[in-house]
Amino acid sequence: MKLKKTKITISKVKSFEKSNLPKIQSILNEIKCWYGEKVGDIDFLTQIINDEYKPFYLAKINKRIAGIIILKINEKTIRIEYIAVDRKFRNIGIGRRLLEFVKKYCVDNQYEKIYVQTRHLARCRRFYRKVGFALIRCDNKEGYSEYTWKS
After folding, report:
1. How are beta strands 134-139 and 113-119 bridged, if at all?
2. Which residues, including other chains, have CB under 8 Å from residue 103's CB and lie 6 or more apart?
3. CA 21, 63, 72, 97 torsion: positive or negative?
4. Cβ atoms within 10 A of the Cβ of 129, count?
5. Bridge-partner residues for 72, per DSSP?
6. Counting runs of H as helices and runs of E as strands, what totals does the chain give?
7. Torsion, CA 20, CA 22, CA 25, CA 30, rounded to 10
8. Could you report the per-residue pLDDT of 19-42, keeping only the tens digit for each?
9. pLDDT at 15 over 80
């Protein structure tokens, strides 16, 4: 699949379409081992949908869910709580598009920074540096790194 010929849409989730729930759960369940949480559980997803400070966005290609990003909004900052891309759509720019969307949201709404915490995986470190985030903390004992982007 080529990104240049593919239209990617990003939209806020306001409620779940029953038909989309298994796909959302599947994508989030791929990352739950990193977080040790039940990120794909319906109770977890419903709680996020109802939390105005945790906007939830879907990236779609031809109406198919390709990626997910869940944010946590504070007075001056945005924290990326979860970001995940369906295995079938990886390496075509979905993650980058989700982050560009959040960066624009940050600027448009006058937030100062975006934070994200990630595992010590080389591909994660490369990805966040490539999209303009700077390393601010590295905890080798706990096995994670924290990055920031300033508007």
Report:
1. unpaired
2. 114, 132, 149, 151
3. positive
4. 12
5. 79
6. 4, 7
7. -120
8. 777 888 888 877 765 555 566 677
9. no
Q: Which amino acid is at 96?
A: R
H/E stretch holding 31: helix 21-35
Walk me through the domains of the chain, giving residue ranges and CATH numbers. 8-150 (3.40.630.30)
Per-residue pLDDT of 67-120, as tens digits, reads 999 999 999 999 998 899 999 999 999 999 999 999 999 999 999 999 998 876
d(CA 51, CA 33): 23
Helix (H, G, I), strand (E, B) or coil at 62: coil
CA 74 – CA 76 distance, rounded (Å): 6
Q: Phi first, then psi: what are they for 149, rounded to 5°?
A: -130, 130
pTM (predicted TM-score) = 0.84
- Predicted confidence (pLDDT) per residue in 52-72, tens digit: 778 889 999 998 999 999 999
